[in-house]
Specification:
Layout: H1 3-15, H2 18-21, H3 27-33, H4 39-42, H5 45-48, H6 50-57, E1 64-68, H7 76-85, E2 89-94, H8 102-117, H9 119-122, E3 126-129, E4 144-150, H10 153-159, H11 162-172, E5 173-184, H12 192-198, H13 203-212, E6 216-221, H14 252-258, E7 263-269
Parallel strand pairs: 1-2, 1-4, 2-3, 4-5
Antiparallel strand pairs: 5-7, 6-7
């Protein structure tokens, strides 16, 4: 371990709660409980179940992990400090610089600035790009242990480039590597056009997209299920928290009570 890495590791551990860092076998939970995380992000743990989800995917802090489209960094806030302590590596494959979406450009710039503002936590994150139309290679072929994507597949389906996305992920993974997916879950039999409109996808569609790229479905989990979510909302999944895109402000309390969306959690393996 280099002197710089050792110093960074010691600095990071020093900000974790002492009672947690004393548990050598609970490094992930210590990172999740750390005061470096925003309180608004911690409040969403009840819906996103980060410890259970990452454990289900089978990733460890010593792996070379890719997070696809990290958004504003909800999972990066956990993954980056975690792998930094374990001598792993996090690759953040963000929106392409060629994206025509002003919204995505803004998120991309804000995310990169956020990383740069906390070098003690995020200085070892490797920033790459992923997405249409040409920036599909986010890592060298067969070079990463795991690829994780949280609530992104519905965007790929809407953009009609899901096949390209799964193929690129398959190429980057080592043989035996893991693809972990969570996304909003539609009821079985939901038509494709309704999926594109609502943001909810059927498990069958996501599984078929992954299998067509060469992946094998290893296991499903109900970690991120929400039985209170009917999936039938005026403004699709964005009606629910955290977006709460409602037409009538008086409806917000009703959708807050439902919580975040019902989500599939799938683990695939590259043969």
């Amino acid at each position: 371990m280099s002197i710089k890495r050792l110093f960074s590791k010691m600095l990071l551990i020093s900000i974790l709660p002492l009672s947690q860092t004393a548990l050598a076998d609970d490094l992930l939970q210590a990172t999740i409980d750390s005061p470096h995380r925003a309180e608004s992000n911690k409040q969403r743990d009840q819906y996103r179940h980060p410890a259970e989800t990452l454990n289900f995917f089978g990733v460890t802090e010593s792996m070379r992990i890719v997070e696809i489209w990290p958004g504003r960094g909800w999972y990066t806030e956990i993954l980056a400090p975690w792998v930094k302590q374990g001598d792993g590596e996090l690759i953040a494959a963000g929106f392409s610089a060629n994206t025509s979406s002003a919204y995505r450009q803004t998120i991309r710039q804000e995310y990169n600035a956020w990383l740069a503002a906390s070098p003690d936590l995020y200085d070892e994150v490797v920033i790459t790009e992923f997405g249409p139309e040409t920036d599909w290679q986010f890592a060298e072929p067969a070079s990463v242990d795991a690829v994780l994507t949280f609530r992104n597949v519905h965007n790929w389906v809407q953009g009609e480039f899901a096949d390209e996305a799964f193929s690129a992920i398959f190429t980057a993974l080592k043989s035996g590597g893991v693809l972990g997916v969570t996304d909003h879950r539609a009821k079985s039999g939901t038509p494709l056009e309704m999926m594109k409109k609502s943001g909810y996808l059927t498990e069958d569609l996501v599984i078929s997209l992954a299998e067509n790229a060469g992946f094998v479905l290893e296991e499903k989990s109900e970690i991120n299920a929400n039985s209170a979510d009917t999936t039938d909302h005026p403004n699709g999944v964005w009606t629910l928290p955290p977006n709460l895109r409602v037409d009538n402000e008086a409806d917000k309390a009703k959708y807050q009570a439902i919580g975040e969306s019902d989500r599939m959690t799938l683990r695939f393996r590259k043969p």
